[in-house]
Specification:
Layout: E1 5-16, H1 21-29, E2 34-40, E3 43-50, H2 53-64, E4 69-82, E5 90-92
Antiparallel strand pairs: 1-3, 1-4, 2-3, 4-5
Organism: Shinella curvata
Main location: cytoplasm
Family: Belongs to the NapD family.
Length: 95
């Protein structure tokens, strides 16, 4: 039986300090497994991917500590089970 691995995908919203959005966007661009989907009026919507909820949480914590960030909050998390095509994954709501 093949080993089934989990792949976690999460969305998050980041609130930035006034005038801080450009610096935060530049810092996010340098992070692995983080993709910016929208940015406007001091808010940024991102997607984070990784092998576990812990990795996603660690990444979100690092983002929350970036210069210019007021808050970084996970909104949704989805878990894909890799290695078994019959499995549709598992949905978890984080917020």
């Amino acid at each position: 039986m093949p080993e089934r691995r989990r792949h976690h995908i999460s969305s998050a919203v980041i609130a930035t300090k006034p005038g801080g959005i450009d610096g935060v966007l530049a810092a996010l661009a340098a992070l692995d497994n983080v993709e910016v989907h929208a940015a406007d009026k001091g808010k940024i919507v991102i997607v984070i991917e990784g092998p576990s909820t812990g990795v996603l949480g660690d990444t979100l914590m690092r983002i929350s500590l970036l210069d210019g960030v007021i808050a970084a909050n996970m909104v949704f998390e989805h878990v894909e089970m890799e290695g078994n095509e019959a499995d549709d994954g598992q949905r978890t709501d984080a917020a």
